[in-house]
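User: tokens in, sequence out, please.
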């Protein structure tokens, strides 16, 4: 698997800084329930509060986190702008219990956004490539060491007493 020197993690993953498990709640920070990260504040690289994590989007076919959905602006969820942030653009700061985005606030302010009733097609390669480019990143699916999906015949599972209903 490829290594990302910027974040100190496997390519495509979010970085982790801080004292780790000494400051993280639960089993984290390396493996965490997605809902424990929702609501975390996101700071830009110039230390501006740019919003909160609203959702975490999975690429089901690869088994990876593709994006964090950031809620920015608005008040009590009204009038907020939603932004898809490539997961690799984020670093979890366990000391602050927040994420740090790899770009300054003005890049976030000028990012393409959407509203809660009109989500983009996250699977559209053209849209996703443009989004990654906005944040100065290569799309996560083009990184070195990515596992290729190869069509293989379905293999019957071994039978057991449990699977046979005995």
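Assistant: Sequence out:
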């Amino acid at each position: 698997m490829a290594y990302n020197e910027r974040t100190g993690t496997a390519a495509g993953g979010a970085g982790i800084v801080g004292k780790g498990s000494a400051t993280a709640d639960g089993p984290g920070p390396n493996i965490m329930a997605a809902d424990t990260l929702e609501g975390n504040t996101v700071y830009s690289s110039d230390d501006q509060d740019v919003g909160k994590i609203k959702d975490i989007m999975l690429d089901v076919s690869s088994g990876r986190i593709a994006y964090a959905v950031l809620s920015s602006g608005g008040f009590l969820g009204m009038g907020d702008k939603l932004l898809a942030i490539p997961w690799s653009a984020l670093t979890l700061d366990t000391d602050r219990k927040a994420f740090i985005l790899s770009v300054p606030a003005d890049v976030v302010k000028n990012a393409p956004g959407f509203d809660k009733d009109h989500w983009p097609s996250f699977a559209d390669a053209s849209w996703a490539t443009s989004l990654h480019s906005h944040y100065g990143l290569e799309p996560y699916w083009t990184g070195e060491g990515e596992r290729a999906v190869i069509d293989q015949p379905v293999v019957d599972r071994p039978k057991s007493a449990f699977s046979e209903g005995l």
